[in-house]
Amino acid sequence: MPFTLNLDIETALQVLFFLSVIGGLLAAIAGWNSIRSGSRLMFFRKRRDMIMRGWRMVILAIILGSIAFSLNQYARPVIYRVFPPSPTITLTSTITQTPTISQTPTITFTPTITLTPMFSPTPLLPTQYLSKFTGQITPDPMAVFSSLQFSRKIEGNLPVDPLVEFANPVMHIYGTFSYDKMTDGAQWTAIWKRGDTIICDETKPWDGGTGGYGYTDCLPPAEDWLPGQYEVQIFLGTQYITGGVFTVTGDAPTVTRTPVPTKTMAPTSTRLPSATAIPSKTPVIKPTDTRQPTITPKSTRTLLPPTEKATATFLAPDVIVITVTGTPPSGLIP
What gap in Å lies between CA 66 and CA 47, rounded to an integer? Predict the structure, then answer.
């Protein structure tokens, strides 16, 4: 049966580091012994050859030490950028041991104190976040996330000096994680809570690719970091996928707010209304009646015989009365 050696990246780096350290120590010891032995020889050529061999071993030791230092400091981030890591899935034991003897207690103690868990085993996504969903892709049910690590700063999405307890004053905290089998466009949500109070949150479509490292961060005002235990919950769609807990100690800084003076408007002068000139009376010119009455004389022309005498009487300027004396001839109408 052929022998196969399966090493992950982390184990391979550790093996190379220790081999470099051991090789450097052995080369340094061999070089020192060669130089010391060569300096005691009487013959010039042999003495020179052994001393040169010793210095070559010392240089090799320095090179191996530099390699060990580089492997420990820089190799891991470079390799993880080329080969994104996959989260380690925790295996659940399938073997359940069944006790063969069940002892029945004779005395049942009634607990006087009921312990209430601080965090729900399976957190539920608050309903107010459902209206904020904008992702159109259904999350992959095979997606996995690692547990969160908390730190004050990150480099390349990797935590720098991760902690589980932070002392006030606290400004900015990152929660980093690794992930695999993710789908761009799927909705994910991160909620930072102190008890039942939400201090930070974010929900948006995923844009980090299939696998790698990611983070969520929280930057509230400094006075909001009250001492106590904090929990971060991450949901993929509406399903809880990972989380973490950290503690803040010490009193939060108190911010003294200086009231901003308000501008007081200076009273403005009010102009009095100017006197309104009373319109003068316009004389009404009455039209002058220039019409002259027309006198129409009314007269009756009557044929009189030569024996009759007519007398005209003027009663008014426009009326003339004619009086006839005598006997009118027959056939005439007065």
Answer: 29
Residue-range definition of the domain harbouring residue 42:
9-82
Do 31 and 136 belong together in one domain?
no
Classify residue 181: in a domain, yes or no.
yes
Domain boundary among 23, 53, 82: 82
Both structure tokens of 37:
């032995």
| pLDDT tens figures, 214-250 | 999 999 998 999 999 999 999 999 999 999 999 999 9
CA–CA dist 83, 72 (Å, integer): 17
Q: What is the pTM of this model?
A: 0.44
The Cα–Cα gap between 178 and 157 comes to 9
- Residues 76 and 133 placed together within one structural domain of the fold: no
Q: SS3 sequence, 224-286?
A: HCCCEEEEEEEEECCEEEEEEEEEEECCCCCCCCCCCCCCCCCCCCCCCCCCCCCCCCCCCCC
